[in-house]
Amino acid sequence: MSGKQREYRGRIRSTQSLKKIFRAMELIAASRIGKARQRLGESAPYTRAIQRAISSVAYHSHTDHPLTSDRDDTNRVAVLVITADRGMAGAYSANVIREAERLRERLEANGKEVVQYASGRRAVSYYRFRNRELAAEWDDGSDSPKFERAIEIADTLYDAFSAAPEDGGVSEIHVVYTRFNSMVNQEPWVIRMLPIEIVEGVSEPSAEVTPLYDFEPSAEEVLDSLLPRYIRARIFTCLLQAAASELANRQRAMNTAVTNAEDIIRQYTRLANSARQAEITQEISEIVSGADALAAGS
Amino acid sequence: MAATISVFIVAPDQTLWSGTARSVSAPTVEGSIGLLAQHEPVLSVLRAGTVAVVADDGARTELPITGGFLSFDEDTVTIVTDPGSGVAAAE
């Protein structure tokens, strides 16, 4: 076997083993995505319940809570980016980071100073590489987020929001994540977490007399205990959506990788075959011309 | 006549209990609250304790919770519990 042929065979073999890896990762992503979507569904009642309760409080009391009102004593704003821990998910992380950078430009154009938070190793390494300062970072478990992680992130952001300006307090909190619309459609999405805009899930600005709510112990205290839970639930939902999107992206990327590997294998097989034929042709012509030379010599 | 209320008890990652019930009682920060149908709308902060639900077939379910809050409106009670609730009640 000549050098050329051996080279092609080697490439085919390595591509074949890569293809097996891609296929395995596609199957793993496919099996996890069901679970991720299920968890997203299971967390929905909780978030919905909290959202409904918050809008009820907002409607039936006239409390000015710091979490719902704008603060203008600082121009620092926090941006949390949620990406994957690992690559191999196509442009998933790159898209979220690009969206985050766009948001950053927009905020800076408005005279804000951005404090960056990152979840997921891809975002962390992106900002590290560019020597950008991260206020806090979380990694590990991006494809199956735990509620404890959501609490950690939410409490950190909440602390930053309630801190005084000189202690690094921020006036707004934005979250950039990937929204899971469907198996084939996920998009980078920006939400403003704080101050809360109470517009979603508004159910009853109807003409009838709204019932008088009884708050126990008081509207302020109910809101005090509701809002941190609300932020946790929102962050958790974001994490779950990002996880489902990550897995869907990974499945798609790996599927493409398998197809590409098959293409490469087919190409190299053809090249190897033609190299083999060329070698045989060459050997035949060598033998024939050798025999000719011998016949001519005798 | 049996006036019933619909009950949803949810945790961050699952629904712990849902269905129709005759009464619900829950531990609030100020004591304890018992809810029957036609109760006035209420939003309340809960402390750690036990939520008891009497289903419309008379079966009584008790769920330990670590905290949360409760909202009642139009004969629907929603109890949002903190993580770690309902563990002992897993049947």
Description:
The complex is a heterodimer of chains A (298) and B (91). By secondary structure, chain A is of the alpha/beta class. In chain A, 60% of the residues lie in helices and 14% in strands. Chain A has one domain: 3-Layer(aba) Sandwich (Pyruvate Kinase, Chain: A, domain 1), CATH 3.40.1380.10. Chain A has five helices and six strands; from the N terminus they run H-E-H-E-H-E-H-E-E-E-H. Chain A has a five-stranded mixed β-sheet, with helices on both faces. In chain A, helix 1 runs antiparallel to helix 5 and helix 4 (147-162) crosses helix 5. The longest helix of chain A has 79 residues, at 219-297. Chain B is mainly beta. In chain B, strands 1, 2, 3, 4, 5, 6, 7 and 8 form an eight-stranded mixed β-sheet that branches. In chain B, strand 7 (68-73) and strand 8 (76-81) form a beta hairpin. The N and C termini of chain B lie far apart (31 Å). The relative contact order of chain B is 0.29. The mean pLDDT of chain B is 83. Chains A and B meet through helix 1, helix 4, strand 6 and helix 5 of A and strand 1, strand 2, strand 4 and strand 7 of B.
